[in-house]
Amino acid sequence: MAVTIAAPITGTVIPLTEVPDPVFAKALVGPGVAIDPGVAATLTVTAPVSGKLTSLKPHAFVISHRPDQGVLVHLGIDTVHLKGAGFTLRAEAGQQVEAGDELIVWDLGTAREAEKSVVVPVVVLEANAGDLTLAEAGPIDAGDALIRIG
Predict the structure, then answer these.
(1) Domain 3-149: CATH superfamily, name plus number
(2) Where is the PTS EIIA type-1 domain (predicted)?
């Protein structure tokens, strides 16, 4: 059964290899792509797929859409060091979410002032790159198809 992972934010799709973090760039966490939000000041981050919000931190979340597979969305690089500053949570870990549900509002100014990358990796956990069809590099709107599994 094919699953579509939607873009959680609006921006520009870039290859994972261009993410300024070797763990993501080398796909050590899993295959996927990243989105550069460009000059956006504030982003509403939405659920890219329906499922259980198994992990929710201010800077990252995982939605399990299958018992053995989840989608990780990481808001920026090294943004864990911001200790939640600039992030407003709109959901709770453990809840069921639908694709498009608002999960986090992100004020990117805080990350930029701290000189953190605001690139957003979207990674499919427990997946093989060969099973994924990734969106082409270029502009994308939140809710558009980003990754297809199967």
Answers:
(1) Glucose Permease (Domain IIA) (2.70.70.10)
(2) 21-126
